[in-house]
Design goal:
The chain is of the alpha+beta class. Helix content is 57%, strand content 24%. The protein has two domains: 3-83; 87-163, Transcriptional Coactivator Pc4, Chain A (Transcriptional Co-activator pc4, Chain A), CATH 2.30.31.10. The relative contact order is 0.06.
Length: 164
């Protein structure tokens, strides 16, 4: 089969596929419509096999496109959920959690370093501002604390058992 003929068949079949409901249309129906449009009997084995490859290629492309769209939707939903959940203090620091009315854990950038800040806040002029009471941990310090949480919890349990 000539390259020019292949190109014409592929263009015709793809145009038909683009306007077809693929959940109800069969390869035979596509081939029949293309035969009518082109005035060429595409039921011959060489044409039939080529039409099948064009249809399969089109379906694979549509499936890949659908997967990409779904992934983009999921990413967008995750980003929207993340944006909704994020809360910032009056200084622009990300609030991770509020430990009490006056205490909270925030993530802040200080001189190019990311810090985990556990701090008391006070109100001034309708703004909640961080006080000097608290601690700001570097990433390394936070990691060390986090890794030792089980030992701290065990020590708390032992202290509580001595009291009771």
């Amino acid at each position: 089969m000539e390259a020019e003929m292949k190109k014409k068949i592929e263009e015709t079949v793809r145009k038909i596929l683009e306007h077809s409901d693929m959940s109800e249309t069969t390869e035979y129906q596509i081939r029949k419509q293309a035969s009518e449009k082109m005035g060429l009997d595409l039921s011959q084995s060489q044409y039939k096999a080529f039409v099948r490859t064009v249809v399969n290629s089109f379906l694979e492309e549509q499936e890949e496109k659908s997967k990409q769209e779904q992934e983009q939707e999921v990413e967008q939903e995750e980003q929207e959920a993340k944006n909704v959940d994020e809360e910032y203090d009056d200084e622009g620091n990300l609030i991770i959690c509020k430990l009490s009315d006056k205490r909270r854990v925030t993530i802040q950038d200080f001189r190019g370093k990311t810090l985990v800040s556990i701090r008391e806040y006070y109100k001034k002029d309708d703004k909640e501002l961080p006080s000097a009471k608290g601690i700001a941990l570097t990433e390394e310090q936070w990691s060390a604390l986090k890794n030792n949480v089980p030992a701290i919890e065990e020590a708390i349990r032992m202290m509580e058992s001595r009291i009771m």
